[in-house]
Structures are given as structure tokens and as C-alpha cells.
Design a protein that fits this description.
This protein is α+β, with helices and mostly antiparallel strands and about 750 residues long. Helix content is about 60%, strand content about 5%.
């Protein structure tokens, strides 16, 4: 592989005009496609195989036009102190609001509070239920505006009015955080390379790659049912790996220049060596993202595949466009160790000429770890183990309006409903009774209602509503506890257990659905898929890394180190968002269960990035070992060339993810914190401390591979052994080449 990529790098360097035109043409084509495509809606959300989804599908069949999965809104009214919602003036204001709400093309129905018995016992709070024909993410902006305007008109009459439900749900805006991440990336790259030109190349290529990927997603959104949220993950991951991969190749190019190689040769060798690491690192990310299909939630599968496509584009750009741009940059990209005069290059040159230059920080740190491997290993493992302790108390769930910041109207509506009607009112359960196979459908439905009333934590059970044929009914159950509580989850399971007995007696199927039940089922499905997903992703990556490193213990160490870092990161998430530690500092207003998607999302994203750092850092070590260095010295050599780059890449990723902590959305805040802390643990504790300590302890055993397996495995030559020539028996540059003037 190294030889093929070496030739590709040299070809791209020589034919830079053609390569640049191809990528510009692809960007233009994708942009035109995105501009001419219809606006993306939200992908239809379904969770195949869950009881809640089966009930939704049954309602669509038996209650046509009901819009079982349509958006809902609750407009909550509260009378001023000393007054009641039953006062004539307030009744008039509410009914005027109801009329305004009903005047909309996407509105299915609006319930008048005074006809639907939706006034609290003390008469101070009332609510109007609005049902829409489409899901919350598919509502038009005009519909949302009409809802907010109707609420504001009611406020103008002196009432307190808040709006809850998923009708106001929108895609979180992340543009500002992306700008912050790019700005931090620019600063880190300039410090790392000491050159504005060299720093600009990874940013430019990453933006082009993300532009092509996101534009292609937008262009295909209608045909493939890709929602507006699909591009969010693609942007985040594409930007991350795009900068990383270009950073790796530019860094190796500068190192090759420092060895005295001519620029075209340096570009070829950079792509042949670092490019090989990029290919395999990209494959691990693709495996992790495509592996999301294991969960069997179509929306997650589409998001993973779309993001994987963006990663593939980032790999191709790094292998072709980076050497082409290096050809354009010429002498402006300096050898490693050299900086422009503007960034202190003159000082560095004086130090070098005076002999005062000392080993870089990566070399000094690796030398320390090699001398004290046991102490560093114990400290790293114990530290991550302590951080992972809270993960043992992990509780998973999906957020509702109760987890929103108190500054939002959804949260205030949630609190008003809890005040007037009890906490369980925010999470009603819809019990669907399919009595088509029953001899006495109404008797079966009556038995269901009576049995549910006898369960614990049941506040209210409404009378059954039948379909036209009378063989299917719905019953609404209001729990006593809030939607995200363990008690409500137990009630859902209790109703389902009761339904099993009823089916045996009457032949009627009892299904529980609704937003709360769907959240519970989705959480359970994600939880059940966690181990298979982990086995698939880590297993395939383990096999891939065996091919890359030609070792058993190095890939095993990489996988175990990742598991340690991701568990520690989950522990930190539990401590902050579930236990409330440092909640004020992080802006967490409401603690509660960790988002169900968080563990599997962290595994997918962090595993890909962690393997990036592992592959780039350890391939340098293996390259040095293959070229004759002792194992301990190879560790130091790997850090001499790779530590600075990996550190820069990790800092950039942490900055990108940490920018999301400032989001007003609690789920986005949790994702940002979780990914940022996971990258910190993996890059700086696992890769920078535990990995060199383990390799120092293992010595030559680290690179052991059974002979039979060595014969079977393909030789991908990641370390660039095939690039050595007869004139370079030890892998060092030819002396004449060192003396040759560097040409553009």
C-alpha cells in the first residue's frame, strides 16, 4: 500500500492543476445539487420491533386520519393571582386563542379546555391541546409562528401563557460552535507548524471535504429520506477527521523535508507513510459509523452512513488534494523545526546554530515514561478507573420538556401542568386494545381498564375510545409520577404484564404507546444493542489493526485502552449530568437520566478518533522498530515525530466538541461535554501515557505475531518499508540528496 500511495502522492504533486480542478468541480457539482434540491424535512422517526411502534402502526390502520405520530402542543393558561380561569373574561380570551389555533392547514384538531375538562381542580390553570397532521420536525415555520403568535395574543390579555409539547421542536443551531472550533483549530495549527500557510492547508481541505459531503447529503435528502439533522453528525465528524488527516500528512511532509528530501519526493513519502495510517484510521471510523446499523433505528443508520461517506471523502482529499496544495505552496511550507520569521523562526535558527537546541517535549516525555513505565501505567489506569466509578450508577433515558432550561416556554409549560394536574400529566400513556380476535371486544376493553386502575402509580384512567368497527380502543392513563422516572417505567412494564394475562383470557392484544412509552422502548433498544455494537466495532477494528501493526498485543492494548477511556468519560457524564457535580459550572439546570443514545454515540465517535491517534502514533514506532531501533528507542522516536501532531489534533477536537457545552439544549450540552472529556482521556492519558508504558514493558513481545498468521496476513506495508531503495539500506536519505538544493 505504501508504494501505491507514494506514487499517488507524487502524481498529485506533479498534476496539481488537474487534482485541484477535479475537487473544485466536485464541490461545485455538489453545491449546485444542494441548491436545486428541495428543502430537507425531518427523516421519519421509527423504532422497528418495539411495542410502542407496533401500537403507532396499529393506530394508523384502525384510526385513519388520527395522525398518531403527529406533533402535539399544549397551550397552558394560568390566571393572575386571586382569579380563576373560569372567569368570563378569561374564558373569552382562551376561546379566542382556540379559534386562532384551529385556523391552520397542518392542524388536525384543537380541544377547548372548557369542553374537554382541561381545567385544574382549583380553577387557576387550564390547557388547550393541539394535534397536528405531521411530526414536530416536519412542521412548517409558519405553523410554529402561528402557535407562538396565538400564545402571545393571550398573554396580552393578562394571562400567563406557555407552550409545551413537541410542536416547537427544532433542529439545534450549531453554526456558532463550529466557527469557534475552526478558530481554535487555526490557532493550534499555526502554533504546531509555525507557518500560516502550512496551518491553512488542513483547514482548507477539511472545509472542502465537509462542503462536498454536506452538500451531497442535502442534494439527496429528498430521495433518501435524509432529515435536516443528518448533516449535523456528518459536519462534526467530517470536520474532525478532515483536519486530523491533513494535519498528519502535512506534518510528515515537513519531517521529510527536514531529512533533506526534494519536495516532490517528500510529498510522495508523506502520502506513502502517513497516508497509509490515514487510510486505516479512516477505515476504523467508517466501521464505527456504519456499525450504527446494528441498532436497527433507520434514522441512526442513515446518519451513520452519511457521516461515513463524509469521512471517506476526507481520506481521499488528504491523499490527493494535500500533496497538490503542497505543490502550490512550494517553499512557503518549511521543513519541520523551522518557523517563519514572523513566528520566531530567527530565534529557532540561532538556537540551532549555537547548539542550544534540546529534544522536543514529546521526546522528553517518552524518555521519562520508558524509564518509569510501571508508575505511569498504574497512575493512568487508577486515574481512569476512579473517573469510571460513577458509570456504575448509569441510568439511561430520553429527555422531555422537564429537562429543558427554565428559560424556555416548554419547561415553564411543563411546570405549570405539573402544578395544576400532577407530574404524571406531562407523560400520558396511550393503551391500545386490539380486540379483533376477541369474542367480546367491549368486555375485553372494560377488563383492561379495570385491571389498569388496580396498578400502582396510576393517577387517572380515561374512558375508552373505539374505532368505527368497534374492535379497537384507546385508553389514556395518567401516571402519578413524572415521565422520566423509574416509577413510570415500572408502570409501563406493569400494564404490559397485565396485557399478557388479558390476552390469555380474552384473546385481545394490549399495547402501550405514546411519547413516554416510545422513549422507554427506544432506551431499551439502544441499551440492548450496546454490547453487539461494541463487539462488532471493536472486533472488526481489532482485526484491521492486526493487519496494520502485524501484532496481537498492540491491537489488544489499543482496544482495552479505548474501553477504559470511554468508560471513564461515561463516568464523568454521570457525575455531572446525573449526580450534579459541577452542574453550575457546566450550566446544567436539571439533572436526570443520561440520554439513551449517549453511550453508543460516544463509542462510535470516540472510537474512530481514538484509533486515529493510535494508528498515527504507533505506526511511527513500528516504522522505527522495523528499521532497526530497539523497542524502547522506537517508542521515543514515535513520540519525537508524532506527539506534537497528536496533541494538536486532540486539542482541536476537544475545542470543537467543548463548544457545544454552551448550547441551551441539554442533550447537545451532554454530547459536547461527553465527547470533549472522552478525547481528553483517550489522547492524553491512554495514548500519551498508558500506550508508551505498556510498549516499554512488553519490549519485543509487543510486536510478536505467530508465524502462521504472519504468512496468512496481507502485507500492507504501513510503515513504508517498500519505499527504501538500494541507496538507502538503513532507510536514511542519500547523502547527495541531503546536499541538493530544495526545489519547488
Amino acid at each position: 500500500m505504501a508504494t501505491f500511495l507514494y506514487r499517488l502522492g507524487r502524481l498529485a504533486f506533479r498534476r496539481r492543476h488537474v487534482v485541484a480542478l477535479i475537487w473544485v468541480a466536485l464541490l461545485t457539482l455538489a453545491g449546485v445539487g444542494a441548491a436545486s434540491a428541495p428543502a430537507a424535512g425531518s427523516t421519519s422517526f421509527s423504532v422497528p420491533g418495539t411495542e410502542a411502534q407496533k401500537a403507532f402502526d396499529l393506530l394508523e390502520q384502525r384510526f385513519p386520519g388520527m395522525s398518531a405520530d403527529g406533533a402535539t402542543a399544549r397551550v397552558v393558561f394560568k390566571a393572575p393571582t386571586g382569579e380563576k380561569m373560569t372567569d368570563a373574561d378569561h374564558k373569552k380570551s382562551v376561546r379566542k386563542t382556540v379559534d386562532e389555533l384551529a385556523d391552520g392547514s397542518e392542524v388536525a384538531s384543537v380541544a377547548d379546555p372548557y369542553q374537554a375538562n382541561a381545567v385544574s381542580k382549583d380553577g387557576t390553570i387550564a390547557y388547550a391541546s393541539v394535534k397536528y397532521k405531521v411530526s414536530g420536525m416536519e412542521l412548517e415555520d409558519a405553523t410554529r409562528d402561528a402557535l407562538e403568535e396565538a400564545a402571545q395574543d393571550a398573554r396580552d390579555t393578562g394571562l400567563t401563557v406557555e407552550v409545551g409539547g413537541d410542536a416547537l421542536q427544532t433542529t439545534p443551531e450549531t453554526g456558532a460552535t463550529e466557527v469557534i472550533g475552526i478558530a481554535v483549530a487555526a490557532v493550534v495549527l499555526v502554533i504546531t507548524f509555525g507557518s500560516l500557510i502550512a496551518a491553512g492547508l488542513p483547514l482548507l481541505t477539511a472545509l472542502i471535504g465537509v462542503g462536498i459531503g454536506v452538500s451531497a447529503i442535502t442534494a439527496l435528502a429528498g430521495a433518501l429520506d435524509l432529515g435536516s439533522t443528518t448533516s449535523t453528525l456528518a459536519t462534526m465528524i467530517g470536520l474532525a477527521v478532515g483536519i486530523d488527516y491533513a494535519l498528519f500528512i502535512v506534518s510528515r511532509y515537513r519531517a521529510e523535508l527536514a531529512e533533506g528530501r526534494e519536495r516532490e519526493e517528500a510529498a510522495g513519502r508523506a502520502v506513502g507513510t502517513a497516508g497509509s495510517a490515514v487510510v486505516f484510521a479512516g477505515l476504523t471510523v467508517v466501521i464505527a459509523l456504519v456499525g450504527l446499523a446494528v441498532v436497527n433505528i433507520p434514522m441512526l443508520t442513515k446518519m451513520g452512513v452519511a457521516a461515513a461517506g463524509t469521512v471517506a471523502i476526507a481520506v481521499l482529499i488528504a491523499l490527493t488534494m494535500i500533496p497538490a496544495l503542497l505543490g502550490y505552496a512550494g517553499r512557503k511550507v518549511r521543513p519541520a523545526g523551522e518557523k517563519s520569521r514572523f513566528l520566531g523562526g530567527a530565534r529557532a535558527a540561532r538556537k540551532a546554530s549555537s547548539g542550544r537546541a534540546r529534544p522536543n517535549l514529546g521526546t522528553r516525555w517518552a524518555s521519562f515514561v520508558v524509564r518509569r513505565p510501571v508508575a505511569v501505567l498504574l497512575l493512568g489506569v487508577l486515574g481512569l478507573g476512579a473517573a469510571a466509578v460513577p458509570a456504575g450508577s448509569l441510568e439511561l433515558g430520553l429527555g422531555d420538556d422537564g429537562s429543558q432550561p427554565t428559560s424556555t416556554t416548554q419547561r415553564r409549560a411543563y411546570d405549570l401542568l405539573s402544578e395544576g394536574f400532577g407530574p404524571g400529566f406531562n407523560g400520558p400513556l396511550t393503551v391500545v386494545v386490539d380486540a379483533q380476535a376477541s369474542d367480546a371486544p367491549k368486555d375485553a376493553v372494560t377488563q383492561v381498564g379495570d385491571d389498569i386502575k388496580g396498578l400502582k402509580d396510576v393517577g387517572t384512567v380515561t374512558p375508552a375510545t373505539y374505532n368505527k368497527s368497534g374492535d379497537t380502543a384507546t385508553i389514556t392513563v395518567i401516571p402519578d409520577s413524572k415521565p422520566s422516572s423509574v416509577t413510570t417505567e415500572d408502570l409501563v412494564h406493569g400494564i404490559r404484564d397485565t396485557g399478557t394475562d388479558i390476552k390469555a383470557d380474552t384473546g385481545a392484544d394490549v399495547l402501550v404507546t405514546g411519547t413516554t412509552a416510545m422513549n422507554i422502548d427506544t432506551s431499551q433498544k439502544l441499551n440492548d444493542a450496546l454490547i453487539p455494537y461494541l463487539v462488532l466495532v471493536v472486533g472488526l477494528a481489532f482485526l484491521l489493526l492486526i493487519v496494520v501493526f502485524r501484532s496481537i498485543l498492540v491491537p489488544l492494548k489499543a482496544a482495552l485502552g479505548f474501553l477504559l477511556s470511554v468508560t471513564a468519560a461515561l463516568g464523568a457524564v454521570v457525575a455531572v449530568f446525573q449526580w450534579g457535580w459541577l452542574a453550575g459550572l457546566m450550566g446544567v439546570e436539571e439533572t436526570g437520566p443520561v440520554m439513551s443514545m449517549m453511550p453508543i454515540f460516544m463509542i462510535g465517535v470516540v472510537f474512530g478518533l481514538a484509533m486515529d491517534y493510535e494508528v498515527f502514533l504507533v505506526t511511527r514506532m513500528r516504522e522505527a522498530y522495523v528499521h532497526g531501533e530497539k523497542p524502547s528507542q522506537a517508542v521515543v522516536t514515535g513520540f519525537r515525530y508524532g506527539a506534537r501532531v497528536v496533541t494538536a489534533a486532540a486539542v482541536i477536537m476537544m475545542a470543537v466538541f467543548a463548544g457545544f457545552i454552551g448550547s441551551g439544549e441539554s442533550m447537545i450540552k451532554m454530547i459536547g461535554f461527553g465527547l470533549a472529556i472522552a478525547v481528553f482521556f483517550d489522547a492524553f492519558v491512554v495514548r500519551m501515557a498508558i500506550v508508551p508504558a505498556v510498549l516499554a514493558l512488553l519490549g519485543k513481545k509487543a510486536w510478536w505475531l505467530p508465524k502462521w498468521l504472519d504468512r496468512v496476513l496481507p502485507n500492507v506495508d504501513v510503515e513504508g518499508e517498500g519505499l527504501r531503495t538500494a541507496s538507502e539500506p538503513d532507510g536514511s536519505p542519500d547523502p547527495d540528496e541531503k546536499r541538493e538544493l530544495v526545489k519547488v
